[in-house]
Amino acid sequence: MSRLRLDTRNPRVASVADSQRQALEALAAEQKGKLLVLAHHIVDRGLNPTQRFIVIPYDEDSFIVLDANRRLAALKLLEHPELVQGILSDGQLGQIRGLASRFDPPEEVACVVFEKREDADVWVELLHEGQGDGAGLVEWSAQQKARHRARSGSQPAHMQVLEFVMREGTPSAITEERNTKGDYPVSTLERALGSPYVRERLGIDVQGGRVVTEFPKEEVLKGLTKVVDEIAAGTVKVAQVMSKEDRIRYADHFSDEDLPAATTRGEDSTPLADAPTRAKQYPKDRKPSSERKRMIPSDFSVHIPAPRINEIYHELKSRLIVRDVPNAVAVLFRTFVELSIEDYIRRHLAAGKLRDKKLAQKQEAVLVDLLAKGLLDKNDLVSVRLAVSEPADVSNITNLNAFVHNPQMSPIDSELKQLWYRYEKLIRVIWAQP
Questions:
Q1: Rounded Cα distance, 25 and 80, in Å
Q2: Contact in structure between 178 and 232 (CB atoms under 8 Å)
Q3: How far is residue 25's CA from residue 276's CA, in Å, rounded to a whole number?
Q4: Cα–Cα 20 to 30 A to 347, which of 90, 231, 307, 333?
Q5: Cβ contacts of residue 425 below 8 Å, gap of 6+?
Q6: What number of other Cβ atoms are within 10 A of residue 223's Cβ?
Q7: CA Rg value for the chain
């Protein structure tokens, strides 16, 4: 690095410098705070490995830097902060000194060498004169920048949602105004979206820091826009979404018209910015289980007020891919069935008498009760009873007890998804009863 010299003809400054010291002072005076930000970035992250210095020979031992003068100036200041005393403010100089105390200067920097200035000019100009009809650097549009931040997860989830609604939706005038002024209540939005139940109702999830959806934009925008607008208008305040129970109550006040239509749900999650524009209407006939990725079909929907059981339901429906984690899905599905049955017993039967009974006995009590009430018929009972028959025989590949208690059991993707159809009606009826 000691062999590199600043360009005394640097276009960033108004006049040609007479010396290296003058070139550094002129560049520092022109850049000021920007040079400080660059120095801070270099100390924290190092030099940009994707950008080499463009240089030409000065003499046998040194080179003139034609591109990267700002980086070279920052490096020089980090080694000798006193060089810009009187140029930068006392506060800025103090920050440079603080950075210099923890800076380890590189011995070498990556350069590309041209024989003379004219040879390098075409590339320097391409870097600094804009798009050049596409030959130069084509900057991202505001939407492309937002898409990048959303895809990389560099924004908090609630800010990804707010930006998505502002960019793609039709928010209210007050939302537009508060977002422009910078006083939108983002902390309330963060709390409102803080529960998996709320996100599931709205048709979104957070994966790897990115907000994703399985719905088209026009569908997912319905609920998200409503949330964003209600918070902007103050009709929903932070006290109304403080606890998990508060947020569940808030999500439950949304009507079906406010939420994504279940028939438009796809099988794959994509970042909000990449969601298809229009809804795809799927045929009414259910897809064969071989084409389904998750245990619970996307078009199945029940309201489960019990928070933990509801979270398990949404994991089975929206997050776990059966093919990837069949053992986890099998055990979790058995847990979901058992907790659903126990919740029904707590609400409708004498729970004390069944507390210590096995799953098969608890399930039978629920089946008998639902049969007596005319909510199930005898044909519904046969396959469900078989699924928890005793003992946990490995020959019965859809035996819920075997998933947990038989070490020889190896759940199969296709069989697990078929198992859902045995329980679909029972689960629907259980959670339809208040």
A1: 13
A2: yes
A3: 53
A4: 333
A5: 376, 380
A6: 22
A7: 32
Neighbours of 317 (CB within 10 A): 18
Strand duo 53-57 + 63-67: pairing: antiparallel
pLDDT, averaged across the chain: 87
Tokens 């979901």, located at residue: 336
Burial of 350 by CB count in 10 Å (0-12 exposed, 13-18 middle, 19+ buried)?
exposed
Ranked by mean pLDDT, the top range of 110-124, 151-165, 380-394 is 110-124
Tokens of 87: 């140029």
**Residue 17 — very low, low, confident or very high, per pLDDT cuts 50/70/90?**
very high
Residue 256 DSSP one-character state: G
Point out which residues pair with 54 in neighbouring strands.
67, 112
The candidate with the shortest Cα–Cα distance to 253, out of 238, 236, 233, 232, is 236
Q: What is the pLDDT of residues 243-293, one digit of tens each?
A: 988 998 898 889 888 999 877 887 778 888 888 886 554 444 445 555 688
